[in-house]
Amino acid sequence: MTATAGRSCGIPHPSGGLDVTAATAARLDHAEAINRRIHAFLHLDRDGALAAAGRLERQPADARGSLFGLPVAVKDNIAVRGLPSTSGSAVLRNYRAPYDATVVERLRRAGAVILGTTNLDEFAMGSATTTGFRGPTRNPVAPDRIVGGSSGGPAAAVAAGAVPAALGTDTGGSVRLPAAHTGIFGIRPTYGRVSRFGITAYASSFDQVGCLASDLHELAQVLSVVSGADPRDATSIDREVPDFTAAAARPALPRAVVACSDEDIGILDAPSRTAFFRALRRFEEAGTTIRRFRLPEAVTTISAYYVLACAEASSNLARFDGMRYGSRVAGDGTLAAAFRESRTAGFGDEVRLRILLGTTVLSQGYRDAIYAAATAARKAIRDRLSGALEPGELLLLPIARTSPRRLSDPIEAGEDYEGDRFTVLAALAGFPALAVPAGERNGLPFGVELMALPWQETTLLSAAAAFSALPGATAQRSTSPSRGAAGAP
Ligand code: GLN
Prior knowledge:
Layout: E1 11-12, E2 18-19, H1 20-38, E3 41-44, H2 46-57, E4 71-75, H3 102-109, E5 113-118, E6 138-139, E7 142-146, H4 152-159, E8 165-170, H5 176-182, E9 185-188, E10 208-213, H6 216-226, H7 244-248, E11 256-260, H8 262-265, H9 270-285, E12 289-293, H10 298-316, H11 335-346, H12 349-362, H13 367-388, E13 393-398, H14 415-419, H15 423-429, E14 433-441, E15 444-451, H16 457-469, H17 482-485
Parallel strand pairs: 4-5, 4-8, 11-12, 11-13
Antiparallel strand pairs: 1-2, 3-5, 6-7, 8-10, 9-10, 9-14, 13-15, 14-15
Helix pairs in contact: 1-2, 10-12, 10-13, 10-15, 13-15
The structure holds glutamine.
């Protein structure tokens, strides 16, 4: 599959133009078919997508945007006007977004066609896409396995060929983990690069919108479109947006690769370790300077992330009380009962656990001991990572410790939290990080993470392009049999 094969959903039109409507219809049919098997989409917007395709066809050629006709899927915690926006939670089961998130507005303006909204863990809290109230998403590569999370729906939609690209959110790894488990690219941009307006907040100082795609080219195109300051999000930063598409088309190895140490890799299972070293060797054999770096300690890293993320979640989710937002359960008629019953009925176990954890660490007596300590640890982690990298250099990390587990496998309490050991680093630091397919282990996709200093997404994209072209690059898995069938030329 060439880098441009999935670029447009347009199929040749008899008149020589592009029949965006036919291509969109074919994608929708394919999305419906895969959805029966893997449950990637929560809502397919056939009417809206076809109407958008019709409008695009009537557009004069010189008014076409860079994503003209590109079908995309959007994680269901990102507002798409008129569509259900549930964040995978029963508390929002009846909510429809009355407006577009800024990223959605920008996609539409560039000519993308939004096919629908995709599944996630409830309020994006999780690593498997199993806790949403409408049920789990299956991994298209191995449907008896988890897809990773929390942006499992977007990743599955891309990997199954329903869409070439999708938007997810990444608070502590939610774009990168499912990308790695499905053999596609997924980027978490620098904190502040992309507007969060219209995103249902989980942990605001971590949340970033990210992009997933099977080709780097489309990933970069979508990133270019959604990036840039937004007056409606005060945490978005007014900085020039580089040409990410050009960077992805210009393979360049980084000045040095700073790989995490053997001790850090020790928590991986043996096949994952071998796959990681294979990736490192590919850089080495291409002549890249390699340094090794001991990551900040796992326990501190995971604890800092979960303390802060839960604290922020507990205040962000306070609004879902059946009065300001969310489905209301009346109880005995008193206000207190309605509040209690609405929240009890509305939230799943994991979300409730995190709200309780977050409320505890913010309460008097624990605030200094726990919350303030986590804030200090976060700063120390950011400083260490900054100290490890010079501009133009990249950190190389694993993403997952093991292959994706079977949906039927039981898991221990806290197991998924420990599995976030690598991905939460970029989130704590606010640095950009890119999941890059790096072959397989146990016959399942394996991905590595490249992390850069803030605002260096172009270095990430050029390095990923170079890495993907290196000898030894195991052919990318052909997980998207549908690409052609779904209307790509
Ligand atoms: N697995 C992490 C968590 O549960 C990250 C989730 C995310 O990035 N949204 O918080």
